[in-house]
């Protein structure tokens, strides 16, 4: 289930959008106050896609789009009543992926979200089940990683870590989430074990030319941009 974060200061509009998305099978969370600092609710939501208004208090949507782009490539769709060509240009130049003008048709909004999610998260072939990020390809059938002409045979833990990170490309994956993926049945695993596994994986990736790919976000977790 994909999670949509709505950043909108009109509470009625935000709630209407949330209900619409929930009815279509999405998870949806809302930020409609505290616009001076949205980092904590943004990190807590771990969204797959962001719906962002332009006219919000303190800092406008263009500002927050640029700030989000500094740490994440999560898709951002501007939803605004502003309709000038310059607003659309600024939205795209700030790092936005699409622009929807209010008032909008509910079916158009959902269709645009579905298209962006397909492009961003569902790039796989039915036959071989591939995930591709930055020319690095993970085969879900044989658990091999491909980069150019290089092929890497992954261990079980390496495959689980990479699959989780690649499926959440552009979003920080917490250490707790990775540990749960790797050792769900063991409640007493030391966190250092994850660090050792991650360092070993990074070293193997460097050997095939994929260096500095998995980023560490201090105090948060790991990210593939």
TrEMBL record:
Keyword annotations? DNA-binding, Phosphoprotein, Transcription, Transcription regulation, Two-component regulatory system
Molecular-function annotations in GO: phosphorelay response regulator activity; transcription cis-regulatory region binding
Q: Which residues carry this modification: 4-aspartylphosphate?
A: 53
Determine if Transcription is one of this entry's keywords.
yes
Domain named Response regulatory: which ranges? 3-117
UniProt cross-references to Pfam families, sorted A to Z: Response_reg, Trans_reg_C
In this chain the OmpR/PhoB-type domain maps to 128-225
What is the name listed in the Swiss-Prot or TrEMBL entry for this protein?
Two-component response regulator
The organism is Paenibacillus mucilaginosus 3016
Q: What is the lineage of its organism?
A: Bacteria, Bacillati, Bacillota, Bacilli, Bacillales
